[in-house]
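Appendix B. Chain record.
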Amino acid sequence: MNKLEQLIKWFEGKGKVLVALSGGVDSALVAYAAQRSIGDLAVAVTADYKTLAQEELDSARKICSEIGIRHVIIEYNELENPEFVKNDKDRCFHCRTELAVHLIQLSEKEKIGTIVDGTNTDDLGEYRPGIVALRENGVRSPLVEIGLGKVEIRNFARDAGLSVYDRPSNSCLASRIPWGHKVTAEKLTRIEKGENIVKHLFGARQVRVRDLGKEARIEVGQDELHLLSDLQKVSILNERLKELGFESVSIDKEGYRPGKLNVIVD
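Structure tokens predicted for this chain:
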């Protein structure tokens, strides 16, 4: 029995299961396995909490349509949570604690006994206070329990026919703002618009627009850095981002790496 078969078997006997679906490949594979195993007893839920990019929400809808799993979207505003907005090193803990509250409320309403997410074994090696918050609230991670990492997950998702199998990893828009800088609706809007501009101008898939206050720092995947060598497009990018309110624009020549903003900024 391979690990995908083990993942499918994991759901047997657990009754109704709620799958926290982000729009990425990890939770997509969990939702796929749940639906394959227990059919209509599996429900996917995506939280539209105002720091989620629209393309992530669109991806979640597409995934559920492909899988054939029932999809629930819950809405709330993280910007109403002062602990989240102040954006300290525990921002993700506060985010996931609030998410867990909403997941538990939905599970109680739907009479669902088990809540799962898409955390995988590779996530455990990074600073992820959000994982701690979910664990403390009883959310389980089948990918971790089976022992699945990112490479295997993408391979299984491809074999399962999930279109999201090669989608670049993403995170909430607030992760583009350094710790210590408050999260605001205005910042989130210009970050999302800025990243869409970079994607459309250069064709890059892995994009971050880091909001450093007056400066926008652009990161693309390390294998996509060559796309930013078109000086005419770079000039257009500078103009467009300044229209969004940034005073200067820089390009990170090292490329994207998770956790680059995990520092406190005075």
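Further analysis of this model is presented in Appendix C.
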